[in-house]
What does this fold into?
Amino acid sequence: MRLLQRIYSIWCCFWFVSLFLLLFPFFFIFLQKESWKPLAHYLNKLWAQLYFPLCAIPVEVHYVSPLDPHKPYLFCANHTSYLDIALMGLVVPHYFAFIGKSSLKKIPLFGYMFRKLHIDVDRSSWVKSHQTFRKALEVLSQGRSIVVFPEGGMVTKAPPALTPFKDGPFRMAIEQQVPVVPITLPYNWIVLPDDNRLLFTRHLLKAIVHTPISTQGLTLADVSQLKQQAYQVIENELKKY
It folds into this structure.
């Protein structure tokens, strides 16, 4: 069984890299102009749409309530696997920007795409963190959604259990008065755990996109309450699994 798992893992890694390499020339072209970047975003979605079927990984996405396709949201999900990023291409129907750690910029080719299309966060100093915050606010003000993992990374020691959320994403949502959409990912850690071994296990991937939480009329004094509300929605859903 271990041999089969290794063969399957090689297959999954092969297609992850190969699909990106095949699409990269188009990524490069579409990232040269701001007006072309939505096309690069849809290449990301195409990457995900091709990748999971090629790896025979079934995906189910359940929307608890409809989302306005013309409205920006702040999507926040629990984070337990490197697959979380790829899966968002299938889960979030909007044109969005990720907020991800700055180390992603160092990955050959992928880092170029990430730097040009998404938002990297460098927590080495307050100034750099603040620059990320202001850039994210600008993205939201332009009508583009944000996807963030509010735990601040894959930090849980007992997946899929949650760790406390950071304040930053919820400050953004309140400042721009955009709804917060919690997303629960109950199984990603089973398929590809965060243990640096890159061993895949074939299993259903599921995403539950919850009802948006309104921020209309909220102030920065409500950050803690909003953060806890989003946390509780995801936590309650995870308990079912």
